[in-house]
Design goal:
Strand content: under 5%
Radius of gyration: 30 Å
Number of strands: 0
Largest sheet: none
């Protein structure tokens, strides 16, 4: 009985849609009979048939609103596809990293074995692709984000951690703090201008969450610094790589998220 009533009410809903869409001028006898029996459909019909007074806005107020909206409009350039944006970010990453490494002594190449070189290069390259795609998705609201922002950074950190543990040996600390602080300082100093470059590139979009955008920008800048350190540092052991090289990535990501959160409090001017 209940299923029959629900089915009949759905049919009445469809006919009411046609009625108020202007395709039918009057209700059928069957609908009129059902309205007399069903309180739910009768209430719905009474609400739809009710005439509401049209709200009018004074012409002067409307003109002022239009002028305000038009005055706030700014010309924008059309964003490229997500693949094109990600490719651009990866190319910028490659150019900067190659330019910096070429001006330094590549001691890491001489210290690492071939499996270590291939393994860590694969992890770093995968991280670049992952973060570049994440930034491209964040620049375009409504984009299909196959991997959340937090997961992109988390996968990078976890992959780098596992890769270092599996690929590199544990050695007795050699001037652990002194040498390590030098790498940490160098990495953070490098990550700062690099993050500004990537921020300039991604702010052309329309990100909805500046905290996550700042964190991702900080992560890709920190990853570039880690890449440079990986190929130029001669201390290729687990302790040094995890604490000091990994510390660059973590601190850069946290700093970017904090700065993005602070900027979001100043409104859309920084978007």
């Amino acid at each position: 009985m209940l299923a029959g009533i629900k089915t009949e009410c759905k049919l009445i809903d469809a006919e009411l849609d046609r009625q108020f869409a202007g395709r039918d001028s009057q209700l059928s006898l069957e609908v009129q009979r059902h309205l007399g029996e069903c309180e739910r459909c009768r209430t719905l019909y009474s609400y739809l048939a009710q005439e509401f007074p049209a709200d009018t806005v004074p012409g002067e107020v409307e003109h002022r609103i239009v002028e305000t909206i038009q005055g706030s409009l700014k010309p924008v350039s059309r964003l490229r596809s997500n693949a094109a944006i990600a490719s651009q970010l990866m190319i910028v990453f490659l150019l900067i990293s190659v330019a910096v490494i070429s001006r330094m002594k590549v001691a890491g190449f001489a210290v690492m074995s071939l499996p270590q070189l291939i393994g860590i290069s694969t992890i770093l390259s995968s991280g670049v692709v992952l973060l570049a795609l994440s930034l491209a998705w964040q620049m375009r609201p409504g984009s299909l984000r196959r991997i959340p922002e937090w997961a992109s950074v988390g996968i990078l950190v976890a992959g780098l951690l596992v890769g270092i543990v599996l690929l590199f040996p544990w050695k007795a600390p050699d001037a652990f703090v002194v040498r390590g602080w030098r790498c940490l300082r160098t990495g953070l100093v490098l990550a700062l201008p690099v993050s500004l470059v990537f921020w300039f590139l991604v702010r052309r979009g329309a990100p909805l969450n500046l905290r996550w955008l700042g964190g991702t920008v900080g992560a890709i800048a920190g990853l570039l610094a880690v890449t440079v350190l990986q190929y130029t540092c001669d201390l290729q052991d687990i302790g040094h790589l995890l604490v000091w090289h990994g510390g660059v990535l973590v601190l850069s990501t946290l700093a970017g998220a904090l700065i993005g959160d602070c900027l979001s409090r100043f409104g859309p001017d920084f978007r």
